[in-house]
Amino acid sequence: MSQRDDRALLTRRALLQGSAAGALLLTAGQSSSAERSATPTGSQAWNVEAIAYHDLEGRPGFKLTILERNGRWYLYTGCFWHRGWNILDVTDPTRPELVNFLPGPANTFTLQVDLADDTLITSLEKGLENAPWGLDANGPYEEGVLLWDLADPIRPRQTAHYRTGARGTHRNAYQGGRYMHLAASAPGFNGNIYSIVDIQDRARPREVGRWWVPGQEVAASASTPTSAHDTAAHGFCNVAGKDVSLHGPAVIEGNRAWLPYGAAGLIVLDISDVTRPRQIARIPFSPPFHSMFGVHTVLPVPARGVAYVNSEDTSYGQGAAHFAGIVDIRNPVQPTLISLLPAPLPPPGASYRSFSARPGWSGPHNTNQLQHNPAVQKQGDLFYLTHFNAGLRIYDVSHARLPREVGWFMPPDPVKRLGPMPQGPLVTQTEDVLVDRRGNIYITDKNQGLWVLRYTGPRPR
Hints:
This protein is mainly β. Helices cover 3% and strands 33% of the residues. A 4-stranded antiparallel sheet has the order 1-24-23-22, with no helix packed on it. Strand 20 and strand 21 (336-340) form a beta hairpin.
């Protein structure tokens, strides 16, 4: 019997028989609490319990961030199929309360959020051509970044609108201080590039530096700035703008910027001079792994000497392999892949042999990433990763060369289609995860509301 088959058998036995670690198969929504009466039933879990659900009034959330203020906790979500941002009071995580909805501009993606220093930033982005996202790619749209003052956490006040002059921005970072770090579209470039924007004057943001992968330039012109990167750093160019694009967010650690750059791989920049970012390291992942969103997310943890890296697979299980792995960054100019996180196994009785064979997107997506936020749980021995049609997966990463799965939660498949994705049968598509400092786990889904979870399994030793 192979190691994988042995692990699969043990996992299924634990699920069917129960174990000292608390393995279980559960159905959410069996509480008599009136607040939970509308919780969808049929979730499955191991070492994770659902403590609350909120339907977000039919506006599914996407990316998440959180603020603690005077003993109260506020959760902010981007929206998938609606234009704007949800604000929830999660002071009592078992009773999340939707306290406001900020409407966004029409025909525009409003997917991404981040906050620091009492400032919320929200991205604006043009819809994709020939993609079923519910937007008119030929219609008018807004683009860039909105800045909001959080003096009143429930009623943010818009202070500025920064525009890129092109399609806008995707997943951006604001870790506090003077600069936003954007995954930005810009005139003269294919795909998103890295843009550093000074917001010391909140009302007048201005770009001060940028970096891109050689080959992203469409054509040299008077309007195209001179490249600030070392063009001799490596020899590949993008292919028609398809795969080489900064997904973001950049993660800033000291004078280094860690960039998840699609088919270009994981790229590390020296930004000690923000006007001239300089590449100091790169580790490619495509090939052998797929190139579209080849590196989607990076979470460096220098204190532990590792970075967590993963791709995003949008091929409905038909393309090259996706991955999630751990990189040794003790020498940051020579990062090295040292392990891969094990792929999730279908639960007992599943009609599919692998999640790649299940409808919907499969593979990893987002992590508990916003480590700059003091309200977010710091990365330790438990690693949280959403896995689209496999729900939330939790790994013990105390041994970086031998990560192992220790818990998971699969929401029930939605019963009502709230947006055009996924194509084909309607199945769960778990999107983002955020874990607050109190240990509450929040996840979002393309066609459901907000789930609040708790890990109940053993703690790594």
